[in-house]
């Protein structure tokens, strides 16, 4: 009987992982298609308008719905069937993509159509992210969550590496509306995989929190994700820590391209970015096969510290070989950071609260990402570049190391961002509820039935 029970568990684990891999593949294909469209539309908007402001508005129209809609989206994810939420979100994004292709084909496209379609697609993505992430907890056994997270990071890393190269090639061969229609076709791959499977039923272990918010008003449900986080010092500390360092990372990301272009050509920039992408893919593959550290919080701390150190070195030492090595190490750490963070949340939040809780994370993260985009240019142009002019006392001292002038202003902000990242990480390590979050906060383990 014991032997039969063990075989049944192994069979169920195999089936659930197979279902996850099928869904992951469909989402990967769709993600590549969406990234191709995003890349092509960004170029189309900039070439048509020649305006940096118009170009930036595309990013803002994508970020704002995530901030506004996420709280409600999280409630709907927890109330509805997560597979159908993913189907709905993919279908809505596909239709908005198709509408843009038709407008371009009929020569009726206006810039505001791009903003509107981006906002609509982003609204459906606000549903998709918490549904997909929470569904993984249902599909993947606890011992394989790190591998599943590695596969998700792999999908993102591969997309960032493939889409710009493939998009550039396709734009030289076919028209933009044909690229968008190709994206529309990739949605069918995603939808087909979702229609082919069923998610397992889970008997969730009910905590006092889930009992209190299980059936309540819509307003209570919207705030319940935040209430769950704030009631646990470790999770609240993790949220604040990740949002703070992601704010610094996003400032770095915004300024990295102009920083490198101030020192070298676009061809060299492309090589450096590609090497960074290889670092992310290598790290994601490592997690997918190895499964990650047993103490995820220490992996998170270690690679956040490494990331800050890499940014600091890029500000201090501007030679191309050191820049390339630094971006490789920085990119190598990102999947481990985000994967470790994600698995901790999946283990510590009950499945019937994950939609709301993950939506809160998404909303706050999107808000600070948008803030980083908005302040990055102002910080460089209004504060750091003036500080590094020849007649400034700060430029006289620090300029002996990093030089002076416009380029030195970006070097200085990299130094500041790198130091802030490391100091935040050191401070977070000193906060015991966060450092011991994996030990002190019990795992919330769903009990799966024997069939899908």
TrEMBL record:
It is found in: Cell membrane. Gene3D superfamilies: MFS general substrate transporter like domains. Its main location: membrane. The keyword Transport applies. Residues 19-436 form the Major facilitator superfamily (MFS) profile domain. One of its GO terms (cellular component) is plasma membrane. This is Major facilitator superfamily (MFS) profile domain-containing protein.
């Amino acid at each position: 009987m014991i032997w039969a029970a063990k075989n049944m568990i192994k069979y169920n684990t195999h089936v659930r992982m197979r279902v996850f891999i099928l869904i992951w593949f469909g989402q990967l294909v769709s993600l590549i298609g969406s990234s191709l469209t995003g890349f092509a539309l960004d170029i189309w908007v900039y070439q048509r308008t020649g305006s940096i402001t118009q170009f930036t508005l595309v990013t803002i129209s994508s970020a704002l719905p995530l901030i506004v809609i996420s709280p409600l989206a999280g409630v709907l994810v927890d109330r509805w069937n997560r597979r159908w939420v993913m189907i709905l979100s993919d279908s809505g994004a596909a239709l908005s993509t198709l509408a843009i292709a038709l407008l371009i084909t009929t020569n009726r496209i206006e810039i505001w159509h791009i903003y509107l379609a981006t906002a609509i697609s982003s609204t459906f993505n606000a549903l998709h992210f918490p549904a997909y992430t929470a569904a993984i907890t249902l599909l993947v056994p606890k011992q394989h969550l790190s591998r599943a997270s590695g596969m998700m990071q792999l999908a993102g890393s591969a997309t960032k590496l493939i889409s710009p190269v493939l998009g550039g090639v396709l734009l030289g061969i076919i028209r933009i509306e044909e690229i968008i229609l190709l994206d529309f076709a990739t949605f069918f791959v995603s939808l087909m995989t979702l229609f082919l499977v069923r998610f397992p039923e889970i008997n969730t272990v009910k905590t006092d929190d889930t009992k209190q918010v299980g059936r309540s008003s819509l307003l209570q449900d919207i705030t319940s994700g935040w209430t769950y986080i704030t009631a646990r010092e470790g999770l609240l500390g993790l949220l604040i820590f990740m949002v703070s360092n992601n704010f610094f990372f996003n400032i770095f990301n915004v300024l990295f391209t102009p920083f490198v272009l101030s020192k070298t050509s676009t061809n060299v920039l492309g090589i450096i970015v590609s090497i960074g992408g290889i670092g992310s893919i290598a790290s994601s593959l490592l997690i997918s096969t190895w499964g990650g550290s047993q103490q995820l919080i220490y992996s998170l701390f270690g690679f956040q510290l490494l990331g800050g150190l890499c940014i600091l070195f890029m500000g201090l030492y501007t030679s191309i070989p050191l820049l390339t090595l630094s971006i490789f190490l920085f990119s190598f750490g990102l999947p481990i950071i985000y994967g470790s963070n994600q698995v901790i949340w999946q283990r510590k939040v009950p499945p019937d609260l994950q939609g709301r809780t993950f939506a809160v994370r998404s909303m706050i993260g999107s808000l600070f990402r948008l803030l980083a985009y908005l302040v990055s240019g102002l910080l460089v142009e209004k504060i750091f570049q003036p500080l590094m002019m020849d007649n400034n006392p700060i430029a006289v001292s620090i300029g002996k190391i990093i030089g002076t002038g416009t380029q030195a202003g970006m070097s200085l902000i990299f130094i500041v961002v790198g130091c802030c990242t490391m100091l935040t990480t050191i401070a977070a390590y000193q906060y015991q509820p966060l450092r011991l979050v994996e030990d002190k906060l019990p795992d919330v383990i769903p009990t799966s039935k024997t069939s899908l």
